[in-house]
Design brief:
Distance between the termini: 61 Å
Shape: elongated
Oligomer: single chain
Radius of gyration: 36 Å
Structural class: alpha+beta
CATH class of the largest domain: Mainly Alpha
CATH topology of the largest domain: Trigger factor, domain 2
Largest sheet: 6 strands, antiparallel
Number of helices: 14
Number of strands: 12
Helix content: 40-55%
Strand content: 15-25%
Length: about 450
C-alpha cells in the first residue's frame, strides 16, 4: 500500500493510492472460499464446487468489491490521520487516473482530487449592536386582550349586532315576491361585519330572530366570489343583481373572555395562576422572554455579518467546488449553479467560521441541550395556535418525536451549536447596547 499527497496549490491536491496484491489477496481468497461453501451449482455437491470455477465465476466482482472497500477506507483514514480539512468529497482525477483492468492487473493505482479549506482567522472581539427591547404596559394589555379575544365563547343572542353570525333562509325576490324558480338557500350564513355597504349593513343590525330582511347581496358584498359562496353558486355562475329576503333563524355572538380564573386556566393551565396580578406578571415575563429571543435573533444576524466581513476576501477552490456540487446534486444544473454559487459560498464560509469558533472555544453539544431546544421549538409551535401553558411532559414527547427523524435531529444540533457560537461571540464582543421600542426594533428589518 502506498499513499502519496501531491499539492497543486494551497487549496488543491491529488491523493494517489497504490494497492498491491498483498493488500487484497488474502481477503479475496477468503471471500471466494466462503462463496464455495454456499454455492449451489448443478452437477456439484454443496461445498464441493472447484475453487477455480468459483474464481472464474465471481473472482472479478469480488476483486472489485475488495479494491473499492480498501480504497474507501484508506483514503478517508489518510485524510483523518493527516487532519486534512477537505471541502466536499474527493473526486476521481480526470487526467492522472490510469486505466484499471481487473482481468490482468495485480497492482491498482487511483488518483483523487481533493479541495482544502483555506486558512483563516476569526476575530470575535469586535463591536456588535445589541438591542434591549422595552416591555411596555401597552404590550402587556395588548397580549391580555389577544388572549381574551382568542379564548372567548359563543352564545345565542336576541338581537343582531354588527359582529354577529346569522343563520337563516335566503329567497330570491322578483317584484317584492319570491321569484318562481329563483334561488333558495336553507341555513345560509350571513355576517353584517363583512358587508362593504353601510346601508345594507344597517338593514340587519338590531333585528331579531324571526325577522325577515330584504337586502341586495351584490350591493352588500361587492365581491362576486363572496356572493356565489353565500348563494351556493358555481364559481362561473352569473351573480344575480336583484334583492333577496333573509329570514333570521339564529343569532350567534362571540364574546371576549373576561379577565378571570377561567381565562387564567385556559392560558396557563388549571390552577397555575390564581389572581389577576399573578396573571399580568406571567404575561409580562412571557413578553420579556419573547423580546429576549427577538434581541438574540437580531444579535445573531449582526454577529454573523461581523464575521462574514472578515471573510470577504477569502479565496476558495471554486473550480473543484462547482464540479463537486454538480456531481453530488443531480437536480442542480450548470445554469442554476452559476446563479446560486455565491450564496452557496457564503453558506460555506459561515459553516467554516462556526466550526472554527466552536473548536477554538471547545464548544460541544450535549443530548440534553438538543432535547431542551426541541422542547422550545415545540412550545413555539403550540403558541402559534394560541396554545400556551402546555404541560412539560407533552413538550418532551414532541421533542423526542422530532429527534427521532435524522434530518430534524441534524438541524437541531446545528441550531444548538450556532446558538452557542453566538453566545460565545456575545461574551467576547464589545456590545453596543441600545434601548429600543418594539416599533423601532421592527423597523430595523424593513427593506430600504
Amino acid at each position: 500500500m502506498n499513499i502519496v499527497k501531491k499539492d497543486i496549490d494551497q487549496l488543491n491536491a491529488i491523493i494517489t493510492i497504490e494497492i498491491a496484491k498483498p493488500d487484497y489477496e488474502g481477503n479475496v481468497e477468503k471471500t471466494l472460499r466462503d462463496y464455495r461453501k454456499k454455492a449451489n451449482i448443478p452437477g456439484f455437491r454443496p461445498g464441493m464446487v472447484p475453487l477455480n470455477l468459483i474464481r472464474k465465476m465471481y473472482g472479478k466482482a469480488v476483486l472489485g468489491e475488495e479494491i473499492n472497500k480498501i480504497l474507501s477506507e484508506k483514503l478517508y483514514d489518510h485524510i483523518k490521520e493527516n487532519d486534512l480539512n477537505i471541502l466536499g468529497e474527493p473526486l476521481p482525477n480526470e487526467t492522472e487516473q490510469k486505466e484499471i483492468n481487473f482481468d490482468t492487473d495485480e497492482t491498482f493505482e487511483f488518483a483523487f482530487d481533493i479541495a482544502l479549506a483555506p486558512a483563516f482567522d476569526v476575530n470575535i472581539n469586535g463591536k456588535v449592536a445589541y438591542y434591549d427591547i422595552d416591555v411596555t404596559d401597552k404590550m402587556i394589555e395588548d397580549r391580555i386582550s389577544t388572549y381574551a379575544e382568542r379564548l372567548g365563547q359563543y352564545s345565542q343572542a336576541e338581537d343582531v349586532e354588527e359582529g354577529d353570525v346569522l343563520k337563516g333562509d335566503l329567497v330570491e325576490l322578483e317584484n317584492g315576491q319570491p321569484k318562481e324558480g329563483g334561488i333558495q338557500v336553507t341555513d345560509a350564513t350571513v355576517s353584517p361585519m363583512y358587508m362593504k355597504n353601510e346601508d345594507q349593513k344597517k338593514l340587519f343590525v338590531g333585528k331579531k330572530k324571526g325577522d325577515k330582511i330584504i337586502f341586495n347581496p351584490q350591493a352588500a358584498f361587492e365581491n362576486a366570489a363572496e356572493i356565489r359562496s353565500l348563494l351556493k353558486l358555481g364559481k362561473d355562475a352569473e351573480v344575480p343583481a336583484g334583492d333577496f329576503q333573509f329570514e333570521i333563524k339564529g343569532i350567534t355572538r362571540y364574546t371576549k373572555s373576561e379577565i378571570n380564573q377561567e381565562l387564567f386556566d385556559k392560558v396557563y393551565g388549571a390552577g397555575n395562576i390564581t389572581d389577576e396580578a399573578a396573571f399580568r406578571a406571567r404575561v409580562s415575563a412571557d413578553i420579556k422572554e419573547d423580546m429576549a429571543q427577538n434581541s438574540a435573533y437580531k444579535f445573531g444576524l449582526d454577529a454573523k455579518e461581523m464575521i462574514m466581513k472578515q471573510l470577504e476576501n477569502l479565496v476558495f477552490p471554486d473550480a473543484f467546488l462547482k464540479r463537486w456540487i454538480l456531481a453530488a446534486h443531480k437536480n442542480i444544473t450548470e445554469e442554476s449553479l452559476a446563479t446560486d454559487y455565491p450564496k452557496m459560498l457564503d453558506e460555506l464560509k459561515w459553516h467554516l467560521a462556526k466550526e472554527k469558533i466552536a473548536k477554538e472555544n471547545k464548544l460541544e453539544v450535549e443530548p440534553a441541550e438538543v432535547e431542551n431546544y426541541a422542547k422550545q421549538m415545540a412550545k413555539m409551535q403550540f403558541s402559534q395556535y394560541g396554545l400556551t401553558g402546555i404541560d412539560d411532559a407533552i413538550l418532551s414527547n414532541y421533542a423526542k418525536d422530532m429527534m427521532k427523524k435524522e434530518d430534524q435531529l441534524k438541524g437541531l444540533i446545528e441550531r444548538v451549536l450556532e446558538n452557542k457560537v453566538f453566545e460565545t461571540i456575545k461574551q467576547a464582543a464589545k456590545l453596543d447596547t441600545k434601548k429600543i421600542s418594539i416599533d423601532d426594533f421592527n423597523k430595523l428589518f424593513e427593506t430600504k
